[in-house]
Write a structure and sequence with these properties.
Layout: E1 4-11, E2 16-17, E3 24-25, H1 29-34, H2 38-41, E4 45-54, H3 61-74, E5 80-84, H4 90-100, E6 107-111, H5 124-135, E7 141-146, E8 149-152, E9 156-158, E10 167-169, E11 176-179, E12 182-185, E13 207-211, H6 220-226, E14 231-236, H7 249-258, E15 262-267, H8 280-287, E16 291-292, H9 298-311, H10 315-322
Parallel strand pairs: 1-4, 1-5, 5-6, 6-7, 13-14, 14-15, 15-16
Antiparallel strand pairs: 2-3, 7-8, 8-11, 9-10, 11-12
Length: 331
């Protein structure tokens, strides 16, 4: 019996066509599928639903909820689900789906392309082939398939703008790859399922990301409080450095924490974890109640905080969720 695969399309470069204003999503899912060779389509029983027609720059929390609800509603009817998506925000979508659909019992695989599917040199064909194979693997979880690699959804980062090798698995081994032996699954990189899957799709969009630069004015935190932001993710220096001489970020973090804001600090460095125990600046930040992002990607830290704040306002529960791995996002 052929694996039953649901293909959900959302737009993106893979489905784009030339227009007078540049590339824009134009291909429907049926047209995408017709471009695949018969050897691929004959291997699966594919059902296609077009749910969005957007450049991924326009995919926001409301669209994440739409996608998550579609996946959850269809999870028992299919062996796996493939989602075609633009590359620019695909890592954010893959990360947030990992939390919204935690415990999903089937493979959910996002993919896309750097060149439209209709281009004679498109990478979309190979990416779809990999995604379909992973969706048929019965390995549960949320994944991103690109350039013959399969990455755990909450570990994917887009690192190149045009190269076909556009995504990397940061601080985590590949979940699978394609080679001369076919699809090679790496079980050690697949987190264990914990509990039954439930749709937890409430999100808080009042989360702000700050990339720390030398001399950043601490008054930005006052502005964010006035704008009723509930969470901040800070990309700090190195292992977790924050300046406090002349411009005292540490004092502002204390005020933000006392006002009920959740502050998560990651490293600007792509690889290896933050460690606030190493330096005085880090220890001072910990004393003010900031939460270490450790080895989470920025995409995972931001979307996890949006998700956690959507579930609860209890400070202790927020800290508990943020300080432990829920979907493999933190070692």
């Amino acid at each position: 019996m052929r694996p039953r695969i649901l293909l959900l399309t959302t737009g993106g470069t893979i489905a784009s066509l030339p227009t007078g204003a540049g590339l824009a999503p134009g291909l429907a899912g049926e047209e995408l599928a017709r471009l695949l060779p018969h050897g691929v389509t004959d291997a699966y029983e594919i059902t296609i639903h077009d749910i969005l027609h957007l450049d991924s720059s326009n995919i926001q929390p409301e669209e994440w909820q739409t996608i998550a609800r579609q996946v959850f509603a269809q999870r028992d009817a299919y062996d796996g689900i493939v989602i075609t998506h633009g590359t620019d925000t695909m890592a954010y979508t893959a990360s947030v789906l990992s939390f919204m659909l935690r415990g999903i019992p089937i493979p959910v695989v996002l993919t896309g392309a750097q060149l439209p599917m209709t281009h004679p040199l498109s990478d979309g064909m190979e990416n779809l082939r990999t995604a379909l194979a992973m969706a048929a693997s019965r390995v549960a979880g949320v994944f991103l398939a690109f350039d013959r690699k399969v990455i755990l959804g909450c570990r994917a980062v887009k690192t190149r703008t045009t190269d076909f090798d556009a995504f990397e698995s940061v601080n985590w081994p590949l979940a699978a790859n394609v080679d001369g032996k076919g699809l090679q699954i790496h079980p050690a990189a697949i987190p264990n399922l914990s509990g039954a899957c439930a749709l937890r799709d409430r999100l808080c969009d009042k989360v702000f990301l700050i990339k720390l630069t030398p001399g950043l004015d601490p008054e930005i935190f006052d502005m964010l409080l006035q704008m009723h932001y509930r969470g901040i993710v800070i990309e700090a220096f190195g292992a977790g450095g924050l300046h406090f001489v002349r411009r005292d970020l540490i004092a502002k973090l204390q005020a933000a924490a006392q006002a009920g804001m959740t502050v998560v600090v990651c490293s600007q460095c792509l690889y290896e974890p933050s460690d606030f125990s190493l330096y005085e600046v880090g220890q001072r930040a910990l004393e003010q109640g900031v939460i270490q992002g450790r080895d989470m990607t920025t995409e995972a830290a931001v979307t996890k905080l949006m998700w956690v704040l959507g579930q609860t306002g209890d400070r202790e529960i927020i800290r508990d969720y943020m300080e432990r791995s829920l979907a493999g996002e933190m070692a």
